[in-house]
Write a structure and sequence with these properties.
470 residues, mainly alpha, 23 helices, extended
């Protein structure tokens, strides 16, 4: 029994500390009241009745009582003398209405400070709540009626979870903004989806029936609300072409794009990291110039051209691998991964080189070399480790771009992925597919950025410490 009471006391004390910290955070303050008003209202009532003298009315009564005391008269004369001497020094008036206003203002400030010293500032509702939580019946009552508030408090106590959920909430606002912008652009576009889907041979009656069936004749705000409703409920509707379920289509086409992205990233890292490290170590050497020239070529060569050349060479002439992508045959992922990974590796290699060269000039690197450490340890432990942040940023951006912008590569290798699906639907425009695709792209970029930010905390101890206090 004593162990249970001790556990309840620790839980109450921990909850009181957490709620006190949340009280000073504007967002979590609002969440506290939304999730726990059945607990906070009794705490506010108790605070008002128990510490009412420290409220606005109580302070006014305390001030009125204080001004009638000899202590207040002595304080006012002291303030008057101080202000008179100050005004005389600065050649300002030492009498009149403005002078008296200044005296009253300074007297009120000092009197309030003196009253705070005597009676205290009163207690916040959060402090009163902490006292009330020490009572086991009230603690159990608050947990029952305000369980969501305790869940929010548990999230607030865990910095990593708190950071992830806040970023997800921000991502929701980003998706909302992107949806508004894209839908508005499509709405004001002169292209008529009904005429594009049905073709030039369609009759006016067929076009009008199509527009009526898909709500294209509704006002702008009605169509926008219907789009939002579908996004919020994860029901993106059906496409204009083929009447396909868009959510199901995205779920089917996303895995090939993800596989290509992961394979491309692996190829890029295998090429870029050694090339960037060697170029940084051998700065201005022939090997440095050669590797950076190759990186420049990787940035310059279009993906579709490189893909066609590889198909002609390795599929048609040498017959080593099939020309088209086949989900059941992993060998067919090699050429798309090389095509996309080549461009990614060029960016990563250049960033690796420049970032390592910047770190290599730091004093602690020179000190490590002066201590006689092996050059490999200096490069890996002191230079590369401290140069990783911008490299990770480029890797994350490149991977997100692959998930959302590899349409030409998917076209060349006949990969039925998301990028090809979105690009082919944009030309109509197939509005539901375009909205779903844009939401996918925004979510992919946001999630990639979130993962990159979390990796930062494991690479940089300073960010890890800052996040623990988040």
């Amino acid at each position: 029994m004593q162990e249970k009471q001790s556990l309840l006391k620790r839980f109450a004390a921990n909850s009181a500390r957490t709620f006190g910290r949340m009280w000073n955070n504007r967002i979590y303050f609002i969440l506290m009241w939304l999730c726990g008003f059945l607990t906070l209202i009794p705490a506010a009532v108790v605070n008002l009745t128990k510490y009412g003298m420290q409220g606005k009315g109580g302070k006014a009564r305390q001030m009125a009582e204080f001004t009638a005391t000899p202590e207040a008269k002595a304080l006012k004369e002291e303030v008057r003398g101080e202000i008179r001497r100050k005004n005389e020094y600065f050649d300002k008036p030492v009498s009149g209405e403005e002078f008296e206003k200044e005296v009253e203002k300074e007297f009120s400030r000092q009197a309030q400070a003196l009253l705070v010293q005597k009676h205290g500032r009163g207690k916040k509702v959060s402090e009163t709540l902490g006292e009330m939580l020490e009572s086991t019946p009230f603690l159990l009552y608050s947990v029952i009626v305000s369980l969501p508030m305790y869940i929010v408090g548990a999230v607030f106590q865990r910095p990593y979870l708190k950071y992830i959920l806040e970023r997800i909430a921000m991502m929701a606002f980003v998706l909302m903004g992107v949806t508004i912008v894209v839908f508005s652009i499509i709405y004001i576009s002169p292209t008529d989806p009904a005429a594009s889907v049905l073709g030039p041979e369609a009759t006016k009656e067929a076009v009008e029936n199509f527009r009526e069936a898909y709500g294209l004749n509704d006002p702008y705000l009605v169509q926008l609300w219907n789009t939002f409703r579908k996004v919020i409920t994860f029901d993106l509707g059906n496409s204009y072409v083929g009447n396909q379920d868009i959510a199901e289509a995205i779920g089917r086409k996303f895995p090939p794009t993800l596989i290509v992205g992961i394979a491309s990233l692996a190829v890029a890292l295998l090429i870029a990291m050694p090339a960037g490290i060697i170029s940084a170590i051998k700065q201005y050497s022939g090997l440095d110039y050669a590797l950076m020239l190759i990186a420049l070529l990787g940035l310059s060569i279009p993906n579709f051209w490189l893909g066609l050349i590889m198909i002609l060479e390795f599929s048609i002439q040498l017959k080593w691998v099939p020309a088209m992508y086949q989900p059941e045959n992993l060998i067919t992922i090699i050429m798309p991964a090389i095509v996309v990974g080549t461009g990614m590796s060029a960016q990563i290699a250049r960033m690796t080189r420049s970032s390592m060269l910047e770190v290599a000039r730091q004093d602690y690197v020179m000190m490590a070399r002066a201590k006689g450490l092996q050059e490999s340890k200096v490069v890996m432990r002191y230079i590369l480790k401290n140069a990783l942040l911008p490299i990770i940023t480029v890797i994350g951006m490149s991977f997100a771009a692959t998930l959302s912008g590899a349409a030409t590569t998917e076209k060349v290798f006949n990969i039925k992925g998301m990028c090809e699906y979105i690009s082919s639907s944009t030309l109509l425009p197939d509005t539901p597919v375009v909205i779903g695709g844009v939401i996918y792209i925004a979510a992919a970029i946001s999630i990639s950025n979130l993962i990159v930010d979390l990796i930062y905390t494991f690479v940089d101890p300073r960010l890890k410490t800052r996040l623990r206090n988040y």
